[in-house]
Specification:
Layout (H helix, E strand, L loop, with lengths): L2 H23 L6 H21 L4 H22 L3 H15 L2 H19 L11 H9 L1
Length: about 140
């Protein structure tokens, strides 16, 4: 990956980190310690994958699966849009893995988004889960 592409990808990731942190913090949860721990795990996992696991495919896959699990906890406890939580995973799977592994991981990530989106946390979307699934998978 070229240096300019890497910088653009890094900027996109930091914007997503900020958006995830901002959206989760706005939920005004009473469980701030758990929120802080999960957000730090989410960001740390992605940063380790980006800077230290560049060429280690099995560890990249393990890291992506770990991020799916962390995102599931964040979504289950604090709500939000799963596509936002897993956007970085899709980017990393697409750019860091060979084509075959990238397709498999992206399928798993999209399946996780669909599965988690079937139970939306927003009151106005609970009557229309198909809208939430479509919105999150776009």
């Amino acid at each position: 990956m070229k240096k300019d592409d890497f910088n653009i990808l890094t900027a996109i990731k930091y914007i997503v980190y900020f958006a995830v942190a901002f959206s989760v913090i706005l939920t005004k949860s009473n469980n701030t310690i758990l929120l802080l721990i999960l957000l730090l795990l989410y960001i740390t996992n992605s940063q380790i994958r980006m800077y230290f696991l560049k060429n280690n495919i099995p560890l990249i896959i393990f890291s992506l699966i770990s991020e799916i699990i962390i995102a599931a906890f964040l979504f289950g406890i604090f709500g939000g849009f799963t596509s936002l939580y897993l956007f970085i995973s899709v980017l990393d799977a697409s750019f860091m893995l060979p084509k075959r592994e990238a397709l498999i991981m992206n399928f798993i990530i999209y399946a996780a988004v669909v599965f988690e989106s079937m139970h939306p946390s927003y009151k106005y979307l609970q009557n229309y889960p198909i809208v939430n699934v479509i919105f999150n998978t776009l």
